From TrEMBL:
NCBIfam families: PRK06498.1
Keywords from the named record: Lyase, Magnesium, Metal-binding
GO biological process: carboxylic acid metabolic process
Essential cofactor(s): Mg(2+)
Name assigned to this protein: Isocitrate lyase
Catalysed reactions, semicolon-separated: D-threo-isocitrate = glyoxylate + succinate
Organism: Ferrimonas sediminicola
Gene Ontology terms, MF aspect: isocitrate lyase activity; metal ion binding
Coiled-coil annotated residue ranges, if any: none
Annotated active site: C222
Length: 532
């Protein structure tokens, strides 16, 4: 027996046990509402999606072609439309996730107004967006199932048993829009206790995967800004443990932690690490400090600080900001140490924030990490902060030059220019951009590819195009030709925006609750009928 029919029978038994008081309750309607609300809490979602993500990680270990992807979404509607589109085009949500970007929360969701990515926004807005995203995805489930239920009723009314059976199968095998979310907790918004408290809120909202970075919480900068300051390993590991405790406390035993290192672009530290013996983790962190080795107290000025490192007395360089510098050229070594240390102390995945999308650079670091942790895997930011066109054209230019190919027709500094768009070099660069994710998954250990803030940019671009035409000579045609007509022809579900907002579901419920007395919105005068 199908789950749907089993739920109808169970509801009928329960209703019958209540006597005449529940006579007006229809068991099939009750079963429908239950089916449309598969996930009762955010913790149900976190437990369900954690299992999906763990299975995907194992699958990737067997075959790197099975990498996963996501787009950053700054509103529940954006996340909903993304997953509806994925189901429409690919008939499956398999290996497609959501990403919650702290950058977009700061820029678009703070009550202070738009803010830079520096952890100044309300930390509760992060958990709030997770809850909002899953509210919209659950509504997408309910809407899709509602359409199937109405089609089931129509097949029954027409006496079409074959169609009824086909629709019944779709109901029983319905694939939810609920998918894993990788959620950005920045640097934890405070000390390890603050990190634990926020992680709990995020998990309760539905997050199965939390990404945390090794920057100083109150000095946090966007990964693509200057002035980043890292913390000693033990400070960061305390926060990783705090997130793990939050998962365990809430019964999400297989929750996923992504440890992000910003060391490649961070040349500063706020603290000198505690060290108890030569070669321990604190000593390794301090060994990267820039400074001068001294021989005696005569080399120390008032206020100078001196530590023992590498068996010598080191006077670290301290800036007016009271921050300490790392030696130039130590970024990759620090990244590798960060990553190995995080994986050995409870992290599941890594995030290396780089300054350019270069498969070779990423692979060089990952290969060193895998010498110690063979199954190390990355989440990688296919960032809009990179100039992808220029980066890849320059990579091709450099490869051609190294191979002795004539590049005299190209000016490396001007390769972004439109005049190069149709050239052999530009076409080869575009081909490399197209295969970047597959190449990096295969060669550089990238399990998950995401774009942090693509929908920020698409919203701006589409609004600019509409404003230019609607307020210009095109007038209403600017909307009709480039928005509504395209929605209709591409089968964009929200062209019926009343339906997308829940109007038909509301009508269903009114019928359940009020029977023939229900006042419905979807009658013949509803203008949504113009869209078929």
């Amino acid at each position: 027996m199908s789950t749907y029919k089993s739920d109808i029978d169970a509801a009928a038994t329960l209703i019958g046990s209540q006597g005449s008081a529940w006579n007006a309750i229809n068991p099939e309607y009750a079963a429908r509402m239950k089916a449309q609300n598969k996930f009762k809490t955010g913790l149900d979602i976190a437990r369900y999606t954690a299992k999906i993500m763990r299975a995907d990680m194992e699958r990737y270990d067997q075959d790197p072609a099975q990498y996963t992807q996501s787009l950053g979404c700054w509103h529940g509607f954006i996340g909903q439309q993304k997953m509806i589109s994925i189901k429409k085009h690919f008939n499956s949500t398999d290996r497609r996730y959501l990403y919650l970007s702290g950058w977009m929360v700061a820029a678009l969701r703070s009550e202070f107004g738009p803010l830079p990515d520096q952890s100044m926004h309300e930390k509760t807005s992060v958990a709030g967006l997770i809850e909002e995203l899953y509210t919209f995805l659950r509504q997408a489930d309910a809407r899709e199932l509602g359409g199937l239920f109405r089609a089931l009723d129509a097949a029954r009314e027409a006496g079409d048993s074959a169609e009824e059976a086909a629709i019944q199968s779709k109901i029983d095998n319905h694939q939810t829009h609920i998918v894993p979310i990788i959620a950005d907790i920045d640097a934890g918004f405070g000390n390890e206790e603050a990190t634990y408290l926020l992680a709990k809120k995020m998990i309760e909202a539905g997050a199965c995967c939390i990404q945390i970075e090794n920057q100083v919480s109150d000095e946090k900068q966007c990964g693509h800004q200057d002035g980043k300051v890292t913390v000693p390993h033990e400070d960061f590991l305390a926060k990783i443990r705090a997130v793990r405790y939050a998962f365990l406390e809430l019964g999400v035993d297989d929750g996923v932690i992504v440890a992000r290192t910003d060391s490649l672009g961070a040349g500063l530290t706020k603290q000198i690490a505690i060290t108890e013996q030569p070669g321990d983790l604190g000593d390794q962190y301090n060994s990267f400090l820039d400074g001068d080795y001294i021989d005696s107290a005569d080399d120390i000025a008032n206020g100078d600080l001196v530590i023992k490192a590498n068996g010598k007395l080191l006077k670290p360089k301290r800036l007016r900001s009271n921050l300490f510098q790392f030696r130039k050229g130590t970024g990759e070594d620090r990244v590798v140490l960060d990553c190995i240390t995080s994986l050995q102390n409870g992290a599941d995945l890594l995030w290396i924030e780089t300054e350019k999308p270069h498969v070779g650079q990423i692979a060089a670091m990952v290969n060193r990490i895998r010498e110690v942790v063979p199954n190390a895997k990355l989440v990688y930011n296919n960032s809009p902060s990179f100039n992808w066109t220029l980066n890849f054209r320059q990579q091709v230019f450099d490869a051609w030059s190294e191979a002795g190919k004539d590049v005299s027709d190209y000016d490396r500094a001007r390769l972004m220019s439109e005049e190069y768009d149709a050239t052999e070099l530009a076409l080869e660069a575009d081909a490399k951009i197209q295969t970047f994710q597959a190449d990096a998954a295969r060669e550089a250990g990238i399990f998950h590819h995401l774009i942090t803030l693509p929908t920020y940019h698409t919203a701006a671009l589409s609004t600019d195009n509409l404003a230019k035409e609607y307020f210009g000579e095109q007038g209403m045609l600017g909307y009709v030709k480039n928005v509504q007509r395209q929605e209709i022809r591409q089968g964009i579900a929200c062209v019926k925006h009343q339906n997308m907002a829940g109007s038909d579901m509301g009508d269903d419920h009114k019928e359940y609750f009020s029977g023939d007395a229900a006042l419905k919105a979807a009658g013949k005068d509803n203008t949504m009928n113009q869209f078929g």
